[in-house]
Design goal:
Layout (H helix, E strand, L loop, with lengths): L1 E10 L2 E11 L4 E5 L6 H8 L7 E6 L2 E2 L4 H7 E4 L11 H11 L4 H14 L15 H12 L6 E5 L7 H16 L3 E5 L3 H7 L2 E6 L2 E7 H8 L3 E7 L4 H11 L5 E7 L2 E6 L5 H10 L4 E7 L3 H9 L5
Amino acid sequence: MISVEQLGKRYGRQVAVADVSFSVPKGEIFGFVGPNGAGKTTTIRVLATLTPADRGRATVGGIAVGEDPAAVRALVGYMPDFFGVYDRLTSEEYLEFYAACHGVPRGRRRKVASELLELVDLGDRREAQVDTLSRGMKQRLCLARALVHDPSVLLLDEPASGLDPRARVEMRELIQELRRMGKTILVSSHILPELEELCTWVGFIDRGRMVAVGPMADVRDRVASGRRLRVDLVQPDEDSLLHVTELVRNREGVVDAQVIDDHVELTVNDAFADHELLALLVNKGLKVRSFGVVEGDLSEAFMRLTGDHHS
């Protein structure tokens, strides 16, 4: 549904996007991840037809962004990281105004506004002035604004920025509901654990270049330097934990073994026989409470992929 090929963009001497290529299949939620200044917002603005690319090609629904921006805007709903609101309007008037901007017929504008307010759980605030809404409510209202023309693609730049935990959960649930309605969604965020729960695909961008892209689980597996195992003992103490590391460290297939807090974590290669290690520990008289695989997470993948050159 979204395709980006060798996208490049400069602002004077500053390279914002060097060489970005990725695609987002229809109906997926794509997490766009990278450090500040990596090129996320510039790429999103190119897709939203707000910033022309210097080179490369971007399409939405098969339509080239640079060739037919009006047709692309009809397909895309854009929620920027910083947005303006008209404080003196009511929530309903605000959405009706944007419906008019998108060419929604006058007779349908109030119905569209009403339905969207219900969708984003602001139905009881339709007569409230925008400046009386909480930040979380304003965020949901601005998401509703991006939906007034019923786009098939949503570009959400830091939609949970500045929200409290409850408001972030509400925003996440709303985005998931939009996917169930058939929307294709690209979302950037610094809140990596929530992106991991939310997204089905992920792309990592660093210094203007894509460093990994694909289905969430596939990218995490590729990034991992090996499988990780966790060993918990019934009554862990320093001696018993060190004993575990000494037993396993030199075994074939074990890349690393270290004590972390009150347990031991091992990094092993893919061919390593987990059950043999467990049998060894039990046979040596160690009382193992639990033994299992440690799943990699998006934060770990982020640190590995973006390196240590960022502050």
